[in-house]
């Protein structure tokens, strides 16, 4: 009995802050610092009041407030560009989305945030985690929901190597929040393309290199060329011929062969 | 594995049901009676084996009984069950009433007509039996919880086969309650079997997610008690449970945090490796996944367990395709697998040809089936393998080709797409070529002779390693007669002692000579 009353009092405490938070967040543009303050206050209350999912309480009001707050927290984290905070918020939200699916009505932000999470994982090249998250969603959602479909098709483009489609996809993001991760993703992709260029091109002119890398700004290009150690030749082009020569007829790998043979001998010994 | 045996059972049951209901002629009735008595005798024999196992503390015998469970299961019917219960439980035992209640819950919805024909002569024989050997059997059942569990398990199997899920659920709960109270090492194998069917029943009732805490707590106990069979079964049940709901991260954590017992039976190993292979495949670790799935198919029973092998092969083929290999055609021709693997055969053909439109077609036609079999998410990843195969074929057949032609051949949207894709293929080592950006073409390089590289050596090394591993594992899997090993060791020690003595003797002799 004592715990339920504790929740009630905490709930009463939390509600006004929650209202304030909602107001603050819906203001355009939202004041990120202020929202953050309110969020922290609310989160403390949740931890004390036990609003987080448990099997015992039948009361779903607390769950509602907690979920909506966490959703705002996740979006706020993106505004701030704070990826660890976003991941934390998502980790807390997941039980609400999956385990409590039947107890509280579905949130309108559910797929938006899950899609953002997928993109976040993709932009950090955490493909195993990406697929683990994807498995939790039904094939139908993956194929139809715009928020989910976007990162999924991005992953496919990346695997194939159709990098220009990824650049095109930046133009039609399903929500402005996606842009933050898209920018990170594009930077990772530029590196990938640069590696591909080294391996596959014999030579490429300065202007073309910029075009292939989707860069308009000469400074950014200079940064990438420096990072990869490309040298600009006299005719304003890069040459990569060195990278492609196969080192054939290398010396006999004596060490490796010796260890293998000794290993075979040992195993044979055991068998006999 | 289970699903299939259940299907089999369903096929068998109606025919035997028909036989029982249609017992108008006296001869068939007698036949059936004989078969029942035979079954009953077999079970009694099994019970004796269990008693022997308990007395001699050799769990090997119990293993033998459980191995026979599958064939016993097929021969069960109401009459056998009733006589079995009446035989082993005293008339005033509450257990008897409860088990009989379960057994009767099945027969009620069944044909009434059969009740009439069978029940009139049956009570007479039953009573005779329970009267003729009253004391010994009663005392035994009470003294040995193993026997009690075994009979309870048989009743449960019977209920599952007769599809009376509600009472099977109650029955399973009771059974598992019994196992948790007792702490006897001889029970380990039996209780492992009980957990398995307990989870199965919950799965049939669609309540799989509710038993996770139970399984976890049992797993803890089993690990602490060093009950390896129980641990193995419980880990597999949990993995199955997680994968049923696509909870791969939880499954992955369980695998990381728990140690699968080395001594577990081959079947449990096969299951475990299958689940492990699925988890790894999902996490894009295809090489490992391939290894696990391959071992799983090899460890699985070769004649029975068709369902398990079908499933494992489905994943194995998908993973092989993802690795860029083409599965052996013989797999698809295997008569037991042929039908269920047909969609995967179509898929393989599409990937091999590098034909995107055909791949899409296959994906559309079998989409639902793939989703049901949970290979869908792996299969959609195959798209880039199809493209790679296509690029490879183009690179082999053309010395020089423009990007617009590549795009057209691969059905890509634009020449720019083609350029990026080809560049990535070159970087990934799919083809040997270089790109001329200004002119917009790709030029294939001379193919180097593989035999001048270290490739063949590495391939041989891999195969030799595999053979050695198989040998070592099979040595480990063999069963050695108990204490034989010890004897050998003692003789070796004795010999050493003898040699030592001889040496000392010789030394003494030498000393003697010196003294001289």
TrEMBL record, chain A:
Single biological process term from Gene Ontology: proteasome-mediated ubiquitin-dependent protein catabolic process
Record Pfam families: CSN8_PSD8_EIF3K
Entry similarity comment: Belongs to the proteasome subunit S14 family.
Keyword Lipoprotein belongs to the record: no
Stretches that traverse the bilayer: none
Subunit structure: Component of the 19S proteasome regulatory particle complex. The 26S proteasome consists of a 20S core particle (CP) and two 19S regulatory subunits (RP). The regulatory particle is made of a lid composed of 9 subunits including PSMD8, a base containing 6 ATPases and few additional components. Interacts with DDI2. Interacts with TASOR.
UniProt key word rRNA-binding: no
Keyword annotations: Proteasome
Name recorded for this polypeptide: 26S proteasome non-ATPase regulatory subunit 8
Organism domain of life: Eukaryota
Residue ranges occupied by any PCI domain in the UniProt entry: 82-253
UniProtKB/TrEMBL annotation, chain B:
GO molecular function, one term: enzyme regulator activity
UniProt entry keywords in alphabetical sequence: Proteasome
Record bears the keyword Aminoacyl-tRNA synthetase: no
Extent of Low complexity compositional bias: 15-27
Ranges that cross the membrane: none
Residue ranges with Basic and acidic residues bias: 484-509
Pfam families tied to this protein: PCI (PF01399), Rpn3_C (PF08375), TPR_PSMD3_N (PF25573)
SUPFAM superfamilies: Winged helix' DNA-binding domain
Region (Disordered): 1-33, 113-137, 481-516
Domain of life: Eukaryota
Domain PCI: 270-449
GO cellular component: proteasome regulatory particle, lid subcomplex
Database matches in InterPro entries: CSN3, PCI_dom, PSMD3_C, TPR_PSMD3_N, WH-like_DNA-bd_sf, WH_DNA-bd_sf
Biased composition (Polar residues): 117-137
UniProt KW Endoplasmic reticulum keyword: no
Family: Belongs to the proteasome subunit S3 family.
Name of the protein in question: 26S proteasome regulatory subunit RPN3
Organism: Rotaria socialis
